């Protein structure tokens, strides 16, 4: 069934140049070590506080202080998001924890970490 024009939603999320430049920096390919398993190779940045939560709280989705480098080929990122093997709390960067506390507050940040990360 085809969606009517009234119900169709645009996929563009604004044209703010600052937001786009942050996204470009976030998505820039680079090599290094995975923060979870230590394997060397291409990295992806993981949102420690998930994008939907940052967006809902009015934060900067592309803030590098909320980033964590995970290996693209070692499957750590996919395993975390599927719930198969969660990322341990002790490898989360302190800047990301500070970002989470600033955006959510102490209590809600602690609940988020307990729910989505391995303690």
Helix fraction?
A: 25-40%
Note the overall shape: globular
Q: Strands of the largest sheet, in order across it?
A: 1-2-3
Largest sheet: 3 strands, antiparallel
Class per helix and strand makeup: alpha+beta
> Could you tell me the radius of gyration in angstroms?
16 Å
Mean pLDDT: 87
How do the SSEs run, as a string of H and E? Answer: HEEHEHHH
Proportion of beta-strand residues: 5-15%
Distance between the termini: 45 Å
For the secondary structure, the number of strands is 3
Oligomer: single chain
Low-confidence stretches: none
- Give the helix tally: 5
Summarize the topology.
Layout: H1 17-27, E1 31-33, E2 40-47, H2 51-57, E3 67-71, H3 76-82, H4 94-104, H5 106-116
Antiparallel strand pairs: 1-2, 2-3
Helix pairs in contact: 4-5
